[in-house]
UniProtKB/TrEMBL annotation:
Cited InterPro entries: Flavin_Rdtase-like_dom, NADH-dep_flavin_reductase, Split_barrel_FMN-bd
GO BP annotations, alphabetical order: pyrimidine nucleobase catabolic process
Keyword Cytoplasm among UniProt keywords: no
Keywords: Oxidoreductase
Presence of keyword Acetylation: no
SMART domains per the UniProt record, alphabetical: Flavin_Reduct (SM00903)
Flavin reductase like domain ranges (all copies): 12-156
Species this chain originates from: Streptomyces caeruleatus
GO molecular function: FMN binding; riboflavin reductase (NADPH) activity
Name listed for the protein in its UniProt record: Flavin reductase
Length: 177
C-alpha cells in the first residue's frame, strides 16, 4: 500500500534543503529557470550532480531538451528571488541580478556557488524528471550563509553562538516553476 500523499508531503517538508536557481536556455537563447530544493552531488569521478523538476513546470520543455544547465546556490538573503522563480511568472529574470558566464550560462550575480553542467542523462521519476549533469565549471564564493527551506518556509542556520532563527513563514513548493 502506497503512503498517504499528505502525510508524505508533511514528512518531507521537515527535511531541510538548500535552495538553488536552475537555469537553461531555449533554442532561441532565451533563459528559463526554476527554484530547486533538490540539487545534490552524486559522484566526484566523474563529477556528477542532479536536480529534479516537476513535469508541470512552465520551464519543463526547455529542461527536457537542453544540453546544458547552470545552478546558482542561493544565499539566505535571496528568499524573494527564490519565491519569484518558484512561481509560474512570465519574466523571472526581470530584476537584472543575472550575468552570463564564460560558458554562456545565465547565473545569479553574487550566488554562494555556481555549478555549470552538461546534461549527462535524464530519468523520468513519477511527476518529476531527474536531470543528471556532468559538472563542467564551478565557482564558489568565500563567505555567506545558504538559503535553507524547511517546513514550507525559509529558515536560517544556527550561528556559531548557537542562536537560531525560526522559519521565515510559509512558502510555495520549492520547485514549482
Amino acid at each position: 500500500m502506497a503512503a498517504d500523499q499528505g502525510i508524505l508531503r508533511d514528512a518531507m517538508a521537515r527535511v531541510p534543503a538548500g535552495v538553488a536557481l536552475v537555469t537553461a536556455h531555449d533554442r532561441t537563447g532565451v533563459p528559463h529557470g526554476f527554484t530547486a530544493s533538490s540539487f545534490v552531488s552524486v559522484s566526484m569521478e566523474p563529477p556528477l550532480a542532479l536536480v529534479c523538476l516537476a513535469r508541470t513546470a512552465n520551464s519543463f520543455p526547455v529542461f527536457d531538451s537542453c544540453r546544458e544547465f547552470a545552478v546558482s546556490v542561493l544565499r539566505d538573503d535571496h528568499t524573494e528571488l527564490a519565491m519569484r522563480f518558484a512561481r509560474k511568472s512570465a519574466d523571472k529574470f526581470a530584476g537584472g541580478e543575472f550575468i552570463r558566464t564564460a560558458r554562456g550560462g545565465t547565473v545569479l550575480d553574487g550566488a554562494l556557488a555556481v555549478v555549470e553542467c552538461t546534461v549527462h542523462e535524464r530519468y523520468p521519476a513519477g511527476d518529476h524528471i531527474i536531470l543528471l549533469g556532468e559538472v563542467q565549471s564551478v565557482h564558489v564564493e568565500e563567505k555567506g550563509a545558504p538559503a535553507v527551506y524547511v517546513d514550507r518556509g525559509f529558515a536560517a542556520l544556527c550561528s556559531g553562538t548557537g542562536a537560531c532563527v525560526a522559519a521565515a513563514g510559509q512558502g510555495a513548493h520549492a520547485h514549482a516553476g
